[in-house]
Structures are given as C-alpha cells and as structure tokens.
Amino acid sequence: MNQNYINGRFVEGATARDNINPSDTSEVVGVYTQANAEQTREAIDVADKASIGWAQSTPQQRFDVLDTIGTELLARKAELGELLAREEGKTLPEGIGETARAGQIFKFFAGEALRLSGDKLASVRPGVEIEVVREALGVIGIITPWNFPIAIPAWKIAPAICYGNAVVFKPADLVPGCGWALADIISRSGLPEGVFNLVMGRGSVVGEEILTNPKVKGVTFTGSVATGQHVAATCAGRMAKFQLEMGGKNPLIVLDDANLDIAVETAVQGAFFSTGQRCTASSRLIVTEGVHDQFVAAVIKRLESLKVDNALSDGVHIGPVVDESQLAQDMDYIRIGQEEGAKLAFGGERLERATKGFYLSPALFTETNNSMRINREEIFGPVASIIRVSDYDEALSIANDTEFGLSSGICTTSLKYASDFKRNAKAGMAMVNLPTAGVDYHVPFGGSKGSSYGSREQGSYAAEFFTTVKTAYILP
User: Fold this and answer.
1) What would the CATH number be for the domain defined by 250-432?
2) What is the C-alpha to C-alpha distance for residues 84 and 196, in angstroms, rounded to an integer?
3) What is the pLDDT of residues 57-104, one digit of tens each?
4) Where are the alpha helices (DSSP H) in 305-388?
5) What kind and span of H or E run contains 141?
6) Angstrom distance (rounded) from CA 62 to CA 331
C-alpha cells in the first residue's frame, strides 16, 4: 500500500482506496492510503515547526533540493509518464511530456532560489537606510486537481519550497499515484523532515482541515469554480492568503484570412487533445462566415482521423475520460446541446474498445449561439461548439462575453487584428495562431474574471503568492 508522507516518514492512513485505470477498469493501478482529519492536523503541526528552520535555509540548500528533484523527474519521465497515463487517461506521449514539464519546473525554481533578491532604498530622512525583502509565509496548503496530476503539483510545490515555505500537499483523490510518486522523489532530495508532507484523501476531510487550520498561512488551489468559492470564503474568514485557478470557457477566433491548415490544427489540438480535460481547452470556436463552412468541413475531416483508445496504445490521439462520473457529465451536456437546438455535427458517442474504459468520441456542435448552456458552462471534456459570426468585431465581442477569462486565441494572418486582439481579449493569456491550451513553464499562468483569483502562478511571478514583503529601517 502507498502511504502518506509526514515528518520525513511514510505512514498508513485511516482508510485506503483503489486507483482505477480509466482505459481498463479491470486494472487497479495501486492502493493508496487516505488520511483523516487527525492525521492531516499532525502533518500541519510538523510543517509549522519545520517551516521556521527552512525559512532560514541558504539559497544553495534550496537549489540543491529542487535540482535533485528535477533531475530524478527527468530521468524517470518514461516510467512516471506511463503511471500518469494509466491513472488519469492521458496518452502516453502526453504523460511523458507532462512529467518532463514537472522536472523542468523544479529545475527552474532551483535557479530562482539563487536569484532571491530585495531592494535597498534611500530614505527621505537623513542617515536612515531602508531594505525591502521577501520572506516565506510559513505553511502552505496545496490542493490540486486530477487533470494534470504531476505538473500542477510541481508548479505549486517547487515555488513554495524555493521561497522557504513548508508544504502540506493534498493531491486529487481520483489520481493519487503521481502525487505519491512525487512525494517519494522528494523524500530522497535532502529536504529536512517536515518541510514537505503528503496527505492523500477526500477534500471534505483532508481539504477542509487544510482550509480551516490556523497554522496554514496560505492555500493554493486548482479545481472547480464551486470548490474555489468555498476555498475563498473559508480562507477569507480567517484572513489566510489564498490563490485560485478554476474554470474556463475559452474562445478561439478564426478569421476569413486565417491559414486554414493552422486554424484547424490549432482548434483540434486545443479543444480535443488531453480528452478536452484542460481548463485552457478551446471549447468555443468562433468563426467568421467567409470561412465557416470550409473550416467546419476541415475540422470534421481531421476528427475522423483521430484515434480514440487505450492511453497506452500506439498511435492514440485521445484517451478515455477520467471516470464514469465525468463521462456522464459530458454526455449530459451533449444531450443539453441537442435539446437547445445545436447540431451535433460529429461524434458524441460512448465508444467500446478492447479494454473496458470511459471512451467518448470527440463531439463537435455547429449552429450554436453564445447564449446556449454548452457555450456558457464549462463541460471539461472533448466537446466543442462552433459559433458563426459576421466579422472580427462580433467575434471579439462574443469571445469576451463569458464569466471566465483564462485563455483566448485567434487565428489570423492580419497584424492589425492580431495586435488588437492581444490588447482587447479579456483573458489572462492571449494566443495568436496557437492553441489556447499549452503554455511554457517559466512564464506566468492565470486568468481573470471567474477563472482565477490572486497572483499568477509559475515563473518569477510565483513569488507574489508564496512570500510576503518586509520593509526594514535602520539608523546606523
């Protein structure tokens, strides 16, 4: 049994659960222990004690730990990528790529540990010196989702450690395997006991203890809007710092002047790869009428060429949906779209394969408008809608007409429209001739409106959340 990791030791939890392969539901990937509230409090207590010493650690100590973790992740990317594919359903190449990204993130923050800086300023008062420095918050609670089970934990854990914090990490209950593997690697990195702790289990138990415990000074969360709102209300109620990454209903505009081949591949990659289970997925394809029919035909042709099958099989483009509940939600939205009057132009059927799993053919709706539920609510599956518009101005207006604001894209060969779009897209990230899903690990990630709250994740901007600023005055 794979155990929780608390105070430098692996320990059994109160209960356990099987981790099921969504590509082959007869396979148990592993058995993982689950913490209760008492064990979670223990993890928080030891993290609180360990945070004091780690906050005083040297840049070299932090570099060595983070670099060691990154090196092992990269060396084992094929092995861990297969584990990721088995437990979450991403294709094997995607799983390997995500694991490599996790390694690169730890390597990046190893470098950041050596670049810790502050400011020395002149005072308006004669003889007084001023220093401005960043200090660790203390204990950081990290709650991550199932769709990126190793990359998202990496981009939260690495900066937390880099900036001198201690960590209590709760991976998604649905995919504990990658979280445990990451904890196993961290356990051999030289990090002092108690600085990093893994508590697997249900959000209503483990997550709630993290949210309400006064020793947790900051909570970084990625997940659903409803849970994010609960995180916000709970943390605000006790004046704890919090950071939220939630949903998206991301638009991709395709203009008449776009390179059609680029536009089709951009749309299909962004909307359907990783089974559409990305908060940055292109779920609304907004197409001007001059190229609409040609674009629809080309997208359908591309979808016909995609292989949906076991995530570990050769040549697979799309793996299964993560579990039965998510598949049921996807199918419900496909039904809702048809009831709203949208045309299901391709896919949307549950598929049978050699191994029993949660397979769904990518679904494409046409003849939709932006008021339909399928264009307002996040589906989180391989489902996309096409909205026909007259021109760029209407396209931009519809693209921005959403409660979300994570990622937004456009396909065009016009510098004028590309430049205007970058300025006026109401989203945290704007893509030109690139999928809305897919960002580099060394630049800020995050959105606006209902998609995100708080400072950005990743890159040097991560310091904003994981540190607090102290201003010191001295009269020599």
Assistant:
1) 3.40.309.10
2) 22
3) 999 999 999 999 999 999 999 999 999 999 999 999 999 999 999 999
4) 324-339, 373-376
5) strand 139-143
6) 47
User: Which pair of tokens denotes residue 279?
Assistant: 């908060």
Residues facing residue 364 across a β-bridge: 346, 384
Q: 245 is written with which tokens?
A: 């990454």
**Cα 259-396-299 angle, rounded to 5 deg:** 40
* Matching fold, domains 4-246+451-474 and 250-432: no
Output phi, psi for 132, to 5 deg. Answer: -120, 120
Look up 12 and say whether it is catalytic: no
The angle that helices 151-162 and 92-113 make with each other, rounded to 10 degrees, is 10
> If you search the block for the tokens 């909307």, which residue do you land on?
271
Q: Could you say which DSSP state residue 117 is in?
A: -
Q: Are 136 and 51 in contact (CB under 8 A)?
A: yes
Average pLDDT over residues 447-456: 96
DSSP state for residue 323 in the 8-state scheme: S
Q: Per the CATH hierarchy, to which homologous superfamily does domain 4-246+451-474 belong?
A: Aldehyde Dehydrogenase; Chain A, domain 1 (3.40.605.10)
245, 339, 403, 464: the catalytic one is 245
The domain spans of the chain are 4-246+451-474, 250-432
Give the CB-side neighbour count of residue 201, counting CA atoms within 13 A.
25
Q: Which residue has the tokens 């990659």?
A: 269
